[in-house]
Structure formats: C-alpha cells, structure tokens
Amino acid sequence: MKGKTRAQEICKELGLKLTPQRMAILGYLDGNIAHPSAEDIYSAVSKRFPGMSRATVYNTLASLRDKGKLLELTIDPAKKRYDPDTKPHHHLICLECKRVSDIDRMFDLELPDSLGYDITGNHIEFYGYCPECRSTRT
Ligand code: ZN
Ligand code: MN
C-alpha cells in the first residue's frame, strides 16, 4: 500500500495510535495535490471504512496541522482545505470551479524593516478562471 511506511512513521511521530482508518487518511493525503477539504477526505476514506466517523478525520487533520505536517488553507471561507505539501508555496484559485492549484515559483518579496516584523513566511493567492472554466465562459 502506497505511503504505508510513511503513514506509520507519521503516526509514531505524532503519538497517534496506528489505526487502519488513520493509515487510510494519511495514505490519501500523501502526495495529494488536489487540496481536499475535510469532507472530501471523509467521503474518499469512508468508502473503504464505512463506519468511520467524521471526528476521526477532523482529529487526525488537527493533529497533523498542529505538528506542522499539514497546511490548513483558509482561501475558501466556506471550506478549509488541506495540503500535505508543507514547503512554502503559493496558490491559484479558480473562481468558477473552486479548484486550488499550486504555484511552485517563489516571488522575491521584501517588506520594509520599518514595520519591525521578523517575517517568517508569506502566502500569495491568485484568483481567476482555470483553463477549463475559461473555455466555457462567455
Ligand atoms: Zn475552474
Ligand atoms: Mn498547495
């Protein structure tokens, strides 16, 4: 099973009990570039584990997020999305289909020292219409 060893490692690191459900959640997230919401994750994983509760998904996501293993994106105020790619990167958001895509290019941004901040990161969101949605817009 893809991501099994990694899922086991992550559970151990987070001090989480290794359950088949958790393994499935971690496996689903591993390398996932679709920025799924908690509900997306729940519906995908509960196909294999019909008895799984939403709380299992939410708790696992919260633990991963708290330990810095998962980015929680609040781009779409209606639903949080999750990104297992925790290295700094920016996002593109389609206003029509709401897909979130990665921008791997970084931008050289500098803020004036006069702000007095010790800057630890940034996140840029670009909005627009994806190629598929563009082609159907009039
Ligand atoms: Zn679109
Ligand atoms: Mn991303």
Task: Give a description of the structure.
By secondary structure, the protein is α+β, with helices and mostly antiparallel strands. It has two domains: 6-83, Winged helix-like DNA-binding domain superfamily/Winged helix DNA-binding domain (Arc Repressor Mutant, subunit A); 90-137, 2-Layer Sandwich (Dna Ligase, domain 1), CATH 3.30.1490. Helix content is 36%, strand content 14%. The chain has helices at 4-14, 20-29, 38-46, 54-66, 131-136; strands at 71-73, 81-83, 90-94, 100-103, 125-128. Helix 1 crosses helix 2 (20-29), helix 2 (20-29) packs across helix 3 and helix 3 (38-46) packs across helix 4 (54-66). The longest helix is centred in the middle third of the chain and has 13 residues, at 54-66. The chain is flat and about 50 Å long. The protein starts with a helix and ends with a helix. The mean pLDDT is 90. Manganese (II) ion (MN) is lined by residues 35, 83, 85, 89, 91, 102. Manganese (II) ion (MN) binds at residues 35, 83, 85, 89, 91, 102.
Sheet-strand content, in percent, reads 5-15%
Spell out the CATH superfamily of the largest domain: Winged helix-like DNA-binding domain superfamily/Winged helix DNA-binding domain
**Helix and strand pattern:** HHHHEEEEEH
Number of domains: 2
Share in helix: 25-40%
List the uncertain runs.
none
Please report the first level of CATH classification, the CATH class of the largest domain.
Mainly Alpha
Query: What can be said about the biggest beta sheet?
Result: 3 strands, mixed
Bound ligands, named by name, code or SMILES: zinc ion, manganese (II) ion
The tally of beta strands, per DSSP, is 5
Q: Tell me, what's the shape?
A: flat
Through-space gap between termini: 45 Å
CATH architecture of the largest domain: Orthogonal Bundle
Secondary structure tally, helices? 5
- Which quaternary structure do these chains form? single chain
CATH topology of the largest domain: Arc Repressor Mutant, subunit A
Please tell me how large the radius of gyration is.
17 Å
Rounded average pLDDT = 90
Main-sheet strand order equals 4-3-5
